[in-house]
Amino acid sequence: MKNLSRAATGIDLNLIPIFIEVVRCGSMAKASLRLDMSRPAVSMALKRFGMLFNVPLFTRQGFVSGANALCAALDR
């Protein structure tokens, strides 16, 4: 059996539910309230999750963040 632990893969599986909640809520602020996390903690988690794919998952247009194509594909 393969070892898929964080130590072996470098992937923190705790980042996935944070990503899903931000996509569902459409806002990091709303997701942070639902997850009972601070906004900077949610932002940092998304940054770490995006580093796994070497692309930003959200694009920023003024004060609004939108999911890019990769983000939408991961949400399916």
UniProtKB/TrEMBL annotation:
Domain of life: Bacteria
Pfam families: HTH_1
Span of domain HTH lysR-type: 11-62
InterPro entries: LysR_HTH_N, WH-like_DNA-bd_sf, WH_DNA-bd_sf
SUPFAM superfamilies: Winged helix' DNA-binding domain (SSF46785)
GO MF terms held by the record: DNA-binding transcription factor activity
Entry-linked PROSITE patterns: HTH_LYSR
Name of the protein in question: HTH-type transcriptional regulator LeuO
The organism of origin for this protein: Leclercia adecarboxylata
Organism ancestry: Bacteria, Pseudomonadati, Pseudomonadota, Gammaproteobacteria, Enterobacterales
Annotated gene: leuO_1
